[in-house]
Each structure stands twice: as structure tokens, then as C-alpha cells.
Amino acid sequence: MGKKKQRDFDPYIFYTTIALVVIGIIMVFSSSFVQAKMKMKDEYFFLKRNMIWATLGFFAMIFASKVDYKRLEKLTGKIGILTFILLVLVLTPLGININGARRWIGIGSLTIMPSEVAKFASIIVVSKIIKNKKNKIGKLIEGVFPCILVSSVYFALIMLQPDLSTGASILMTTIVMLFVAGLDMKVIIGLGGVACAAFVALIATSSYRLKRFLSFLDPFQDPTGSGYQVIQSLYALGSGGLFGLGLGRSRQKFFYIPEPQNDFIFAIIGEELGYIGCIVVLLLFLFLIYRCVRVAINAPDIYGSMLVVGITAQIGIQVMINVAVATSSMPVTGIPLPFISYGGSSLIIFMAAIGVILNVSRHVKLDGS
């Protein structure tokens, strides 16, 4: 009986993840085939790539679910250093510049987005630090500073790409992990205040970011400029109504929303599947987070618990930011909707991260399993 319990992972997490990935494959194709046919001369261009990445992600998830998560702990130093090197390489001639942002490295058609790797790597490193400093986590210098230092180094390198939203999500995830680890609320509030002040300074000192922020307050002040994407997103969500226009019948994907398969895919979901479709997607994310939290609470050790907390927090933060941007609840940022938005690095790494959670769940007794 004991061996069987070790072999079984949480099926709810597995099938919910698969459901989100399948929705992603369908919606990426539905939102992209018009532009793919015009630009790539192949309406299945994004679909074929997304299916390849989903397949690789599936195998990565299964592999990670079978490899003891404690092996990650032994590789923490190497993972942290490798991620640092990848982030530095982005800033060299190996970095690929697209639309004014240098966020990819690659050779030929093979590319990788190191900032996506950094999201997961920072969780692994911070989990290890929290485990080693569990009795000193309340001390600013010995406990808090090493965690914040790792995230800040990654944040600084990602900012040079530049990519404020991804860097911010890494810092926010670290703060959540420290909070769950038992850091005093006053310190958490202080860290949050410092982070907010830094973000305000970064926005205020960049005309591009400031313009985006001001357009968020009233996107219709510049409907053909900085407010364009948000306005088109709102049109999509509004026209979808309760039940949507029908799968594949979006109007905004006809070159109104640029790259609709990416950061604004939630708007296309709302337009084609309506309010009901949006609620279903959000409930799937909510259920996934709920199951992951249960695994974190019942994890056999603090390292496993922190890994699950970090991955779950990263998923939750990205969902909130992506949906908030699509609904004009916060300034536009380029952050994907996990498992659903088009993007190979994001999909594969998030599915592998879910595999780690599945592995931790093998050591946890849930629902009498």
C-alpha cells in the first residue's frame, strides 16, 4: 500500500493543467489563424508550433513528476548560475531583438526566453535559502536579504531587456514565499512598500512606461496610440456578452488586436466564449491553485512546501496581471496567461513546474488516496 501511495500523484492537478493547455491550443489557433494566413502564408503556423511545445511540455511534466523533487535541491547552485548566464547572454549579440525588446537567445529557429527560466530558477533558489535559514527567516540580514538579493539580481538583468512585468512577478513571488515561510507582516509590508516605490520610480523615469500608465487611467485619450490595445480588448470583451459570438468568430482578431494569441488572448476568449467562457477559465485556475495550496500545506518538508508555494504564487500572479490588463484594471504589461497564451518557453517551463508539484504530491496523502 505504501509504495502505491508514493506512485500516485494528485490527478486533479494533472487533469486541470491538461484542460487549461487544451483550451490554450484551441484558443491560440482560433485567435491566430487569420493573421498567420496573411503574415506566414500558413493559417496553421501557430497551431503547429503550439502543439509541438505542448507535447514537449507534457513529457517535461511527466518526467518532472517522476524525478524526486529533492534532486532539485542538490542542483540549486548550478541552476541559479546557469540562469544568471542565460540572462547575461540575452544582452550579448546572441540576444534576439524583437519590437525593441531583447528577451530571447537562440541559434537559427531554436530560441529560448531566459526570463521564463528565471521565474522557476528563482523559486528553486529561494526555496533552498528558506530551508537553510528557516530559524532565521525573521532576521533581515541573515534570512530576508539573501532571498531578496537573488530575486533582485534576476530582476535587474531582466530590466535591461527591458521587461518590468516579468521582473516584478519574480519579486512578488519571492515576497509571497517569505510571507508563507513566516516573515513578520510588518516586514512584508515594508518590502512591498519599497517594491512599489521602485516600480513608481521606474515608471516615472521612463516616458514609454509613463505613457502606458497614463493611458491606463483613460485609454480613450489616445485611442490610436498608447490606449489602442486596451480599447480593442474592451471591445472584444464587451461584444462577447454572456455566451460569446462563438468559437472562431472573433472580430477583433482581424488585425484590431496585434498578436491576439499572446498577451491579450483572454480578450479573445471573452469575445468568442463570452462571460461564461471567461468564468470557466478562471475557475479552472482557481481550482488548480486550490489543489496546489493543499499540496503545499501537507508537503513532507519545508523545501517541498516552498517549491509548491512559489510555483503556485507565480501562476496566480500572472493570471491576475494578465486578466487585469485585458480588462483595463491595470496598465498594459507583456505577461502571458499561463498554459494558454502562445509561447514555447512559458508553456514548457510552466508544465515542467507543475510536474514538480505533482512529484511533491506523491509524498502527500490527499482525499484518502
What would you note in describing this structure?
This protein has 14 helices and 3 strands. With 369 residues, the chain is mainly alpha-helical. The protein has one domain (2-361). Strands 1-2-3 form a 3-stranded antiparallel β-sheet, covered by helices on one side. Mean pLDDT is 87; it is low at 1-5.
Helix count equals: 14
Proportion of residues in helical segments: 55-70%
C-alpha Rg, in Å? Answer: 20 Å
- How many strands appear in the DSSP assignment? 3
**Which H/E pattern describes the elements?**
HHHHHEEEHHHHHHHHH
Give the biggest sheet. Answer: 3 strands, antiparallel
- The shape is globular
Derived from helix and strand composition plus strand pairing, the structural class reads: mainly alpha
Keywords: Cell cycle, Cell division, Cell membrane, Cell shape, Cell wall biogenesis/degradation, Glycosyltransferase, Membrane, Peptidoglycan synthesis, Transferase, Transmembrane, Transmembrane helix
Membrane topology: Multi-pass membrane protein
Protein name: Probable peptidoglycan glycosyltransferase FtsW
Pathway: Cell wall biogenesis; peptidoglycan biosynthesis
Short description:
This protein is mainly α and 369 residues long. Helices cover 69% and strands 4% of the residues.
Blueprint (SSEs and pairs):
Elements: H1 2-7, H2 11-39, H3 45-66, H4 70-74, H5 76-90, E1 95-98, E2 101-107, E3 110-112, H6 114-132, H7 140-159, H8 164-181, H9 185-204, H10 207-217, H11 228-240, H12 265-298, H13 302-326, H14 344-361
